[in-house]
# Entry
Amino acid sequence: MGSSGGPPQSLQFAANISGVNTDFIVTDFGAELFVVITQSAKIGSLVEASACVSDFSESSTPVYEVRVLFGDRRAEHYRAYARALIELIAAKTNRSLLLGIALKEHSTDSFRQIISVIKDRLGSLASNHPEDDDELMSNAFSIGDVAVYSTCLCLALNNLG
# Structure
């Protein structure tokens, strides 16, 4: 989308997540994807996420960095969303993620639904590599990954209350 030097391209859509209308906007700025997920027409927190492979490691396993730029730093579930999304993105491209998020509904089921909706829509975005333009996120997220993130989300939610 925006990686060709043209203006940023955006994809806007909505979905019903656990009975709550949820708006999504994905904007491609070339080196970075800006994703907004909101159930209140506002951005409550802004979270940055990136993936890199260390030159000093024998493993090609990426290291994920997630940090809250503004908003509630105790909202660990927002970090879980950013981590899940950067793994989807990093599977096909070296882009970073900027996530603007404000949710009313915080549950494991909501997490699964949101990640699934975004995964389905990200397939229409082009990557930084022309040979990967067909599907940015095809087969990048497995059911096992959802279970791991769901467990992390549950732990984060339990720590909030």
Summary: The first helix runs from residue 76 to 90. The chain is about 30% helix and 30% strand. Residues 26 and 35 are 4 Å apart (CA to CA).
